[in-house]
UniProtKB/TrEMBL annotation:
UniProt protein name: Alcohol dehydrogenase
InterPro entries: GroES-like_sf, MDR_fam
Signal sequence bounds: none
GO molecular function term, any single one: 2-alkenal reductase [NAD(P)H] activity
Domain of life: Eukaryota
Organism expressing this protein natively: Camellia sinensis
Amino acid sequence: HIKEGKITYVEDIAEGLESAPAALIGLFVGHNVGKQVVVVARE
């Protein structure tokens, strides 16, 4: 269903390990939209 575009998802991406604490707090207070992801390093 995802490939057909019937189901979509939203990612809230935080860049860098230093932003992880704020991203975690955002989960508890409801600031994020969709799945919370913290990108530590891009290869």
